Amino acid sequence: MKKYIVTLSAFLALAVTTKAQDDVYPTKAYTGRLYITNGTVHVGNGQVLENATIAVENGKIIQVGQNVPVPADVKVFDAKGKQVYPGLILPVTDLGLKEIANGVRGSNDYEELGEINPSVRAIAAYNTDSKIIGSLRANGILLAGVTPQGGSISGSSSVVQLDAWNWEDASYKIDQAIHLNMPTFITRPNRFAAFLGIRGEQAPDATKQALEKVQELKSFFQQAKAYLAESSHKQENLKFEAVKGLFDKRQKLFVHADQVKQMMVAIDFVKDFGLDVVIVGGSESYQIADLLKQNNIAVILNEQHALPSAEDDDVDQPFKTPATLKNAGVLFALNDTHDESRYRNLPFNAGTAAAYGLTKEEALQAITLNSAKILGVDDKTGSLEVGKDANIVISEGDILDMKSSLISKCFIQGRDVSLDNKQKQLYERYKYKYGLN
């Protein structure tokens, strides 16, 4: 009987989740010209233009600056007194792959069985109807790097824009990176050791196990490199074919690692195979910032609003790490992986970094242009510059400040997208119920 109750509860939870937001549609492509006038434009490259105008034609930015003439027969949005920003980018996320983290397995499709899965493609599983997407748009997040999880090699991630009917519409850059999860070199204490009668010396040697796993991974890449060097094959190997882009530089290897030892192994991958490596996580990256710079390795910092990774670290070390990387010349971006808030606090992570050593514009770059550079889409987005897509966010206040940030308009490729979402609808529903309208 308990089994049936759990199943029914899970079904009802999914039904409630899928009921809201049915009237929020992707916006049709906008053709013609659009002028956003009189706003304070944060270009995204460190430049700020007061009382400036952005001219958009067929989804592309054609002019940015002050004293831009506005024709009489065009669509105009007056941003006077408002702040204008590039669309924010969530660089590594399970958005659209994980809907309800606990209890409803049918809403999740972010992990495959097996250890070596480079041929798994997150884009094919991406759900554009996710109810979480609307709440991200309402916080200025317009693009995301959708990423698989699990195993040693999880598969490929793709960049998507967050206003689409299906994954084909959403695709911004497909299979731009392969994701590798570096094994841990630290033995975690077993909380149940005393209860189970396990002595401390019987704990597995984490370093030995990690090195064995690293050797397996290196062996895979050695075999893949040899396979791809052959002009023809008797039998096609899908796993080796899936990493071809790593060796011809069409893809990057995103190594998920927090410990210094893990990142040192990632540096070995650069030296041994000539791969473009990006560290994802990087909580201890501040300790080897100069070494990362020397090896041209970028870093995506996963979570700032967290405790430090080591007991003897400064309690505010996660807040200071972005400034340390910036001062060392390391290309870095900020991320948000917090399941409970579902990634909507990305701009406020940047705001914290701005209070601990970065300037406001440097912190903005860490969630716009820097992310675009690391994801390989900076030719199309990340800043408000001529020739790029019109991915634009307009806020009543400072987008990095939780108290004053209020997003009033978002444009994706020039389309005025809806900022409605499930949370807003529920807010209005219960205002109506209790006569608070």
Question: What is the number of independent domains?
Answer: 2
Give me the strand/helix succession. Answer: HEEEEEEHEEHEHHHHEHEHEHEHHHEEEH
CATH class of the largest domain: Alpha Beta
Strand residue content: 15-25%
> What is the mean predicted local confidence, pLDDT?
90
Number of helices: 14
* Largest sheet data: 8 strands, mixed
State the low-pLDDT regions, or none.
Answer: 1-20
Overall shape: globular
In the CATH classification, which architecture of the largest domain applies? Answer: Alpha-Beta Barrel
Which homologous superfamily in CATH is the superfamily of the largest domain?
Metal-dependent hydrolases
- Strand element count: 16
Rounded to the nearest angstrom, the distance between the terminal CA atoms is: 44 Å
Q: Level of helix content?
A: 25-40%
GO molecular function: hydrolase activity, acting on carbon-nitrogen (but not peptide) bonds
Signal peptide: 1-20
InterPro entries: Amidohydro-rel, Metal-dep_hydrolase_composite, Metal_Hydrolase, Metallo-dep_Hydrolase
Keywords: Hydrolase, Signal
